[in-house]
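HUMAN: Forgive my ignorance: could you write out one protein's sequence and backbone structure tokens?

ASSISTANT:
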Amino acid sequence: MLKIDHLLICIDAPEKMAKILTDFGLIEGESNSHFGQGTSNRRFYFNNIYLELLYLDDPEAAQSPLTKPIKIFQRFLPKTTNISPFAVCFYADNQIKNNDKFDINKFKNWSYKPKYLPSPLKIDILEAPISEPMYFFLDFISSDSRKKHKKFKHKTGFKNVTNIKYHTPHHHLDSDIKTYISEHNLLEYIANDTHIFHLEFDAGAQGKTHDFRPDLPLIFSW
């Protein structure tokens, strides 16, 4: 079965944006740079997924012939309803033994081989318009490789992301991959004027909400 590894938000002012989340009570994980892609990140880990703040550090590399097809540079342009500032990374749960195993070849996709990944590793890009998040799949991620997530003990007490609402002007299920994502409760698509990720933690047991707008297109409920 397909599962979410991490959610990605394209931002500017990374120091400011990361501080907003640490001031809120999150503990920041390690960051890294994507050699040849022109981007770097700041990361915040929860037990089952992590949140990545992605920013440009080399605009020229982000528009190179290798990177240009993933259209990441456009997601940093001034925000419009026609460009989603998000991406969603998926992996397959290898412990699933039934017919619900994910077969990426049922969906339109192509392989991206960035310089920062050693051969033969690749990123499978699931075709979608730029008005949607960039959906991509990593076949080298396993449940075991994600155990490090649980070492982060946030001051807020957050553990698991239990629901993800994607508020978007383009909420209609108009592609096979979007329909699959919705039917398997990976993302809940909600009609909205702008693009927002709304993350629920630990089944929203405390009944609290925090809206990070206008700085980040992000809402937390817990």
